[in-house]
Specification:
Immunoglobulin-like, elongated, alpha+beta
Amino acid sequence: MLKHRLPTLAGAALLAAIGTVAVAPAASADDAIAEVYGCSYQGAIRCGYGGVTNSHTRVYACDTFSDGYGVRTEWLTRSGGGGGVDDANGSSSGCSSKTPGTSANPVTIFRVCQKTPNWNCTNWKNA
């Protein structure tokens, strides 16, 4: 009897896992992220990251490297307006964000910069 029960339980677990993946929300499809590297003398360490979320309306910046330089995410909206958000607490836990976009005027492109004397920025990326 135990031989027949194990495949049934394994099959039920597999179907539950597939069902969970199949009904996962699609909100993450609208999210865009960029990471800026170049911290340390080797340049292979991530300085921070930023991105655009919430259907192209929210922009955020996260500093992940304690080096005295901040991280900023800059953006442009469909109408051509733009700006930047700096991670307000440096490399401490937590990020900073702004909500400059709307459904009628979404954020269209962004880039992430480490604010060194010669700013180290990613290429502009579609939001």
